[in-house]
Amino acid sequence: MLSLAHVPRPVAIDLAPVEAAAACAHLPGRVFFDTALEGGERLEAVICAEADGTVRIGAGALFIMIGAAPNTDWLSGLVELDEKGFVKTGADAGAASPYETTHPGIFAVGDVRAGSVKRVASSVGEGSVVVSAIWSHIEARRQAGVAGAPAPLERDNAAL
Q1: Exposed/middle/buried for 123, CB within 10 Å: 0-12, 13-18, 19+?
Q2: pLDDT tens-digit profile of 90-131?
Q3: pTM to 2 decimals?
Q4: What pLDDT score was predicted for residue 88?
């Protein structure tokens, strides 16, 4: 039996990216105040209440994307953001590294980065790749004799 869900607070639903939902093309960007799922053995519909009535959307699957709005207000003035608030990196930031921002030495990866794919696997990959760019930046500062550049790490191979 399908468990029914009830969401008592406003939910913004943007179905535009779901090309298969052509029948719902009239819904992008609308805000629904009450949302529920309907079905027996499987999902059959999503019920959405608006200020002027209820919309029943026949559906066999439901995909939810949360966190699509970047939480970058605290970066304003430190690095350049695009019109939606995502961090500009790489060529858009005038930087050589695809993950470096408009502020040399500050790097951004994952969903917060303008133009990123917005997928966990991509974010993890970007995070692992940027490490070499960070070390290159630190080494360049060290070679240039910049004050405050971290000293080289020393390993105690006996401890490994």
Answers
A1: middle
A2: 999 999 899 999 998 899 999 899 988 888 888 889 989 998
A3: 0.56
A4: 96
In the CATH scheme, what is the code of domain 73-143? 3.50.50.60
What strands lie across the sheet with 43-50, from one edge to the other? Answer: 6-7, 34-39, 43-50, 53-58
CA 45 to chain centre: 27
Cα 118 to chain centroid distance, Å, stands at: 5
* CATH 3.50.50.60 residue spans of the chain: 73-143
* Residue ranges, the chain, pLDDT below 70: 1-33, 63-67, 149-160
How far apart, in Å, are the Cα atoms of 34 and each of 7, 37, 40, 47? 6, 11, 20, 8
DSSP assignment of the chain: -PPP-EE-S-EE---TT-GGGGGGTT-TT-EESEEEEEESSSEEEEEEEETTEEEEEE-S--------S---GGGBTTB-B-TTSPBP-GGGGT-SSTTB-SSTT-B--GGGBTT----HHHHHHHHHHHHHHHHHHHHHHHHTT-TTPPPPP---GGG-
